[in-house]
């Protein structure tokens, strides 16, 4: 009897011991697997979490009131000759105009008398002819804007030369034929590459200063952006009627305390010798933003003294603005990297939406012409749209279009 009890107890202890060992093995395996996953994704984790925390701490705590003097921080001998990009300040003498229209804003051929509300520069690749045509026929249509909205908006496309040598000749011929018809291409003799986006930005601000200083606002946008031009014009007119008179305005989707990307595999990689600090100055997303005429003049002055080796153009814009004492202002209906949701309640307030390489025409018809025929929604319609925007914009996961605050704007 006693022997049997001892045997049963021994068996029970053995089974329990095996279960404990099994549980510990499972725990060890799970811990090891988690460790491996963390090691494999550490670069991504560092990019999205650690580097942002470090950047915010530096920007708003350690150096909150004394950001580095950016006119002095970039080495004057930094080169990027592999892409043909500029390494000195904002001097464009090495890049003569190949296509230019200096009389675009004078009013000689139009009814506006040179009274330009908005100079609209679209950054475009030389080969993106269809995108340019879509913009001309929709939100960049100068005749539509003048006849329907009663204001003068001048559309220009900023381009460089085709980087592919084998395609350069026929692409340049196509650009010249296109420009003979539409007279809206501004081209300088630099390679149209990612590392020359800062060169293209400087070209826009120099052109505005030289040939269109009277424009009340300057907008720069990518050629895959949709702009709800009636909403934008209405907003700019409201600013002009305000007490500030639309001064010191730099408006868009603001990035605050963003860190430089240090991963060498990234398109946006910035080495320490080019920018040694853990945080950029605040800037707006380069996809689309608007500045007032006085700010455009200040940015022009900054490009004359700042070294332009920083090839990420929206960051360089932030450096110029910081140097001149200009701060970006958030507008909740300027989108980030993503598309705005397709819904009439969004169209009522939208200014820009990103990522529209193929659906510009359909969105133009729906967002502008359909909403203009609906009239006032009334109180219940207003509440309905708030509810819809909350569902579309206030998602629990990160969505780089409009912020949740836009639902209540």
How would you sum up this structure, described in words?
The chain folds into 3 domains: 2-62; 70-330, Spore Coat Polysaccharide Biosynthesis Protein SpsA, Chain A; 344-408, no CATH class. It is α/β, with parallel strands linked by helices. Helix 6 links the parallel strand 3 and strand 4 (185-191). The protein has an 8-stranded mixed beta sheet, sandwiched between helices. It contains 13 helices and 10 strands. It is globular and about 65 Å long. The protein has helices at 2-40, 42-62, 70-73, 129-137, 142-149, 165-182, 197-211, 229-241, 293-305, 313-323, 344-347, 360-372, 378-393, and strands spanning 97-99, 118-123, 153-161, 185-191, 217-222, 225-227, 250-255, 283-292, 329-330, 352-354.
Enumerate the strands of the largest sheet in spatial order, edge to edge or round the barrel: 1-4-3-2-5-8-7-9
Q: Look at the structure and give the mean pLDDT.
A: 82
What is the total domain count? 3
Structural class: alpha/beta
Number of strands: 10
SSE series: HHHEEHHEHEHEEHEEHHEHEHH
Rg over CA atoms: 27 Å
Low-confidence stretches: 40-46, 70-90
Q: Give the N-terminus to C-terminus distance in angstroms.
A: 83 Å
- Strand content range: 5-15%
Which characteristics define this entry?
two-stranded antiparallel sheet; 45% helix; 8-stranded mixed sheet; Spore Coat Polysaccharide Biosynthesis Protein SpsA, Chain A; alpha/beta; 409 residues; globular
